[in-house]
Amino acid sequence: MLACSYGKGEAEAMTISQRPPALPEEEEKEKPGLTARDPAFEPSIMEGSFDDSVPNADNRLGDRRTGDPPKGIKKVFSVLGPGLITGASDDDPSGVGTYSTAGAATGYRYLWTAIITYPMQAAIQGMCARIGQATGKGLASTIKQYYPKGVLYPIVILLIFANTFNVGADLAAIAAGINLLVPIPIITLIPPIAIGLILLQVFAKYQMINRVFKWLCIALLAYVATAFVSHANLADVAKGTLIPKLPRTKDDITLMIAILGTTISPYLFFWQAGQEIEEQKAEGKTTVAERQGTTRQEIANRKLDVNLGMLASNLVMYFIILTTAATLHVNGKTDISSATDAASALQPLLGSYAKILFAIGIIGAGLLAIPVLTGSTGYTVAEAFGWRHGLDEKVTKAKGFYGIIIASTVAGMLFNYLGLDPIKALVYSATINGITSPPLLLLIVMLSNRRSVMGKYTNRSWSNVFGWSAFVLMTVATIAYFVTLFI
Q: Which tens digit of pLDDT belongs to each residue from 447-470?
């Protein structure tokens, strides 16, 4: 930008050492919606040594400031990042348990939910990504800047409770998956799993974690293959897919909000925005001022990433419901009370190997999702109270952030000693997510429509249509759920 303040000859002659001293990071003025990285606003490259101005490399996420731009198919894959990971973590054990329960209990009745929630889910996650890109800050920090603390803090409390319960349910699901392979009591397995995950989250790179465990989640694609050999009634499948059927009973309403809650989950909102910041830090943009603003190409890349991630997530959702309906519900098995019951849906394709593949899938899904859950809690609390945070930070420099991650994991572990059924706990956690979503959806849609926040990258018409539809749907489902508690 300095080139704009001097004559051409002066700009070319000026070296880095002659630049005015930069303001300390804490004194930088944040300008939401700034589009400094648009091509039209890019500063001229000036002569001089930049050695002293290059930020330190990001040690935890990997420094992506060097190397030639990817081309061809590599360029396509290079676009995939936070959106794809978010989509994979959305099919966590809570999701698998809820979708399996829906298919077993109601057959093909709720297949349509996978279709109708996809554009809503993609629109909301896209808004969260753009908020992070445009402001250079996480979702909680942005809410804190534009709304009173009385709005932010209740949301933080709800999110902590929902995430912690979800962590507990996912820990139990991982233990149940291991129990299918090794006859060790589930309750005995939970503490070492929790300790192992804490060590991974605090001392390992999250990119390393997701590279390993996201491949384990591919085992869940067995539901897709099983659907084609399960002899499902195609007419019933078509009806369940294309003709929405509303809940009829109290249990149906509870199941509906669980399906919606595990699909459009609050923790994904904060994680998506937080990962945009991590991506920018990994590019060397270590301050808010450096991260503020975005370009149309960056917006388009993230939109593709998010859309593909959510599409993959909802395809798995669709086929889990279809497969359990075709293999369990039609044979009179309408109640899933254990991991063994859930695994039995894969037997038409895998026979005696069904338990093994289900165990691998559920373990991988849980190990991928729990760091996302605790990480989103860490981002939210740290941003709300102004603590230093980020997966790129060392433990000694972000003690509060990592302390929240540890506390969330330990609290989730302790939830399992309340005597809850592991599979039912998965559905309960999804229900809590559904109840927590409406106020957050409202704030996200409002923020992403404010020019003071987004600059010229506010929502377009279809984003608003699907964003407001998600808010209305989740609000109606939540109200219906609370009404059923009193009748």
A: 999 999 999 999 999 999 999 999
